[in-house]
Design brief:
The protein is mainly alpha-helical. It has a domain of about 45 residues. Helix 2 packs across helix 3. The protein is globular.
């Protein structure tokens, strides 16, 4: 899988839906566990530091969206 930054997405769910990934595939693409991915997508966890930057770089989802301020 390649880096996906051509489009800016409002949240992880729209990025995942656009790429037709299930949560396990999305998590593997980013390099985290499925359960951690799920918590971030549901906004039950907020990624910080290097993980936030990694998600932004790989998905095109903005920091603002990851923080739930979109």
């Amino acid at each position: 899988m390649e880096k996906s930054t051509a489009t800016t997405y409002p949240d992880l769910k729209s990025w995942r839906d656009d790429h037709k990934f299930d949560q396990a595939q999305a998590a593997a693409f980013i390099g985290i566990s499925q359960s951690h991915y799920s918590r971030i997508e549901r906004r039950a966890a907020v990624p910080r530091g290097d993980l936030a930057n990694l998600i932004i770089d790989k998905t095109g989802v903005s920091l603002k969206a990851l923080l739930g301020a979109a």
